[in-house]
Amino acid sequence: MTTVAAYAAPAAKAPLERTTIERREVGEFDILIDIKFAGICHSDIHQAREGWGEAIFPMVPGHEIAGVVSEVGSGVTKHKVGDRVGVGCMVDSCRECENCAAGLEQYCLQGNVGTYNALDRNGEPTYGGYAQKVVVDENFVLRVPDGLSLDEAAPLLCAGITTYSPLKHWNAGPGKKVAILGMGGLGHMGVKIAHHLGAEVTVLSQSLRKKDDGLKLGADHYYATSDPQTFKDLRGSFDLILSTVSAPLNLDQFLSLLKTDGAFVNVGAPEEPVSLNLFSVIGGRKTLAGSGIGGIRETQEMLDFCAEHGFGAEIELIRADQINEAYERVLNSDVRYRFVIDTATI
Predict the structure, then answer these.
(1) pLDDT of 196-214, one tens digit each?
(2) Among 20, 43, 178, 200, which has the minimal tally of Cβ within 10 Å of its Cβ?
(3) CATH superfamily of 2-158+294-345
(4) 160-290, superfamily in CATH?
(5) What pLDDT score does 310 carry?
(6) What residue spans define the domains of the chain?
(7) CA–CA separation, 217 vs 150, rounded Å?
(8) What pLDDT, on the 0 to 100 scale, is given for residue 95?
(9) Cα 138 vs. chain centroid, distance in angstroms?
(10) Using 50, 70 and 90 to split pLDDT, how confident is the model at 246?
(11) Strand 133-137 and strand 30-39: pairing?
């Protein structure tokens, strides 16, 4: 076992504090990664505060990990010492079910193993990226292309793939009108990716406060959802709406903005239940759907896509002792657009 410095939540809703954790020894197919940067995802806050249900404590959050390989097991073939790599939201799966065989490890029928707040194959709790090192099986480690800086690449391991996967699945591209609902950590990546896929992109945000940013990142249009006129002007406009909002929405109102056969896809996960009038989907043969992250193969595809088009996440780099402040700022929508921890400060 290796002792590693980390930041952890000792209990639900407790402030995160500096501590040490134990990482397992590097096994035959394992990779030891010196973590350089770790993104802060809203999911970290939901889980550290048990907003999504009972959690495992102490908890070291963080599933947007970018770093450098410092040691490999004797059987490792996919990565070598010195490689720039990333780790996303999962670190294992059953690898045998039909979904795993199809490259959809995120939907493993036995449940994938989360990078944190989960139990590994040995029944030990997993600890995430708010730490200086991590040991991960080579099959769940991604290559960070040379065209991406590690700090801007870290958020791609969640925010990037969480938006890329549904945009690809629902065929966002030339000739398609796509709306990104919410202009935050996920939303700003959705705008960039949808734009580079060739879609006509509209941002739907509570206000016009971030309009200049949205247009700069690739949006063609920007509307405020606080203005009732928006729902009149845009009725029946979109092939796809990707909702990144993690608060309950008036789904009937937003479904009215879809064309016939359009899809409203949720990647934001509110803590509270939402209600729906089924006539909102029956009329117009509309789809209300959800999407998780992507599989390992698709995540690598996303990283390569971002590098090819020359973009990463828009980030604010912080010290580890600013994590608790950053959590509050995320809840107040006061970040443009992803906090990234410089793990050298842990």
Answers:
(1) 999 999 999 999 999 999 9
(2) 20
(3) Medium-chain alcohol dehydrogenases, catalytic domain (3.90.180.10)
(4) NAD(P)-binding Rossmann-like Domain (3.40.50.720)
(5) 97
(6) 2-158+294-345, 160-290
(7) 20
(8) 97
(9) 20
(10) confident
(11) antiparallel
Give 289's contacts (C-beta < 8 A, 6+ positions apart): 166, 263, 264, 265, 266
Distance of CA 161 to the CA centre of its chain: 6
**216 to 56, 167, 195: CA distances (angstroms):** 40, 20, 11
pLDDT band at 101 (very low <50, low <70, confident <90, very high): very high
Whether the per-residue pLDDT at 247 is higher than 90: the answer is no
Token reading at 260: 């016939």
- Percent of the chain's residues with pLDDT above 70: 100
pLDDT at 289 over 90: yes
pLDDT in tens, 118-150: 999 899 999 999 999 999 999 999 999 999 999
Q: Is the pLDDT of residue 270 over 90?
A: no
Token pair for 203? 């941002």
**Mind listing the pLDDT tens digit for each residue in 144-168?**
999 999 999 999 999 999 999 999 9
d(CA 9, CA 49): 9
| CA–CA gap between residue 14 and residue 55 (Å, rounded) | 13
